Amino acid sequence: MKAEHRHELKTNALAEWLGNFPQWARGNLVSIIIVLATIVAAGAFYTWRSYGKSARLQEQYRFTGLVNQISNRKMQILGGQAQETGSSSILFEPARNLAAFANSTDDDNLAAMALIKQAEALRTELHYRTETVSQQDLVAQIGRARQSYTDAVKKSSDNPSLAAAAKFGLGLCEEELGNFEGARRIYAEIADNAAFDGTVSVTQAKLRLETMDDYKRNVVFSPKPRPKPVRPPRPIKIRPADANSPPDANRPVVVIGSTDANAPAVTRQPVVDVNVPAQEPNKAAAKPQIKVVSVEPNVPTKAPEAKAPTVTVAPVVEPNSTPKTTEPNDPGM
After folding, report:
1. In which domain, by residue range, is 93 found?
2. CA–CA dist 323, 311 (Å, integer)
């Protein structure tokens, strides 16, 4: 079969199919509509699912950022308080952002977690204040935190873990307001609820019930002691050694101090012998005079001549005579 003939046959078949298409479409109109609707629905569902998944991921990412912001603000406050520049009021901004997030999201679980974190931020701000918290501020701010916990309980009705955490927060609010009996009832309700078994809040509630009596006592902190003034170290005196001084006088001056930097230093002076005469500095000592005597060999050494002692003789005194003075004998006479 030649190529031209085959092309002619294909052209005739296509023309015949196009000519019969309207009739075929009228006969299969319902089937065509069903197929097209299925394709459109599948495409719309895939697009909606992809968009919803992306939106949930964005919400989770935003919520994580808000929670991390609270943690960073806490570290900033603690670091600033060490330098007396920190302020706990910087926690109000992330608390407001969490409340706005809870109202805007369609996910009840995320909304409940945001409300719980908002209430924790409000309570933490009170604990991180450096000044005294007035009773009016305490009641107002704890009231806002309690309302956030209550809303979280409503939104987490199908999540036992979040519901137990929100109820535990309500118990903490009652404790901070001084209503320990109300807090005890909330903790007992959490511990006895079988739906909350296996959650962390059950363990926390039981621990609070066991140790609640320890929190009833008022704790009074003593004022911060004033720092002692730091005394500068004493200068070290260095003097040159004197060769003419006694050996003990050239010993270094030893300073014995305690471990306390503010304690006065104790100076130990060198030991000086009081029997040694003091000498002027840089003055040469007088050398003893040495007399050199030449000695000839084979000549005996002469002993030094001893002088004869002087003898005084008392004269005989005769009676009725005038006493006379006897002069000593002159050896030269």
Report:
1. 62-156
2. 19
**Distance separating the N- and C-terminal Cα atoms of the chain:** 194
Contacts of 89 (CB under 8 A, 6+ apart): 125
Q: What is the pTM of this model?
A: 0.53
Same structural domain, 136 and 186: no
CB distance 115 to 152 below 8 Å = yes
Enclosing H/E stretch for 268: strand 266-268
* Together in a domain, 69 and 126: yes
Separation of alpha carbons 146 and 148, rounded Å: 5
Query: Band of the pLDDT at 299, cuts 50, 70, 90?
Result: very low
In whole angstroms, what is the distance from residue 162 CA to residue 166 CA? 6
Of the two residues 296 and 145, the one the predictor is more confident about is 145
The sign of the dihedral angle between the CA atoms of 208, 211, 213, 217 is: negative
Number of compact structural domains in the chain: 2
Pair 170, 154: CB distance under 8 Å: no
In a domain, 128, yes or no: yes
Tokens at 163, concatenated: 């519901």
Residue with tokens 């070290």: 236
Q: For residues 160 and 86, give the distance between their C-alpha atoms in angstroms, rounded to a whole number.
A: 37
Q: Read off the amino acid at residue 53.
A: K
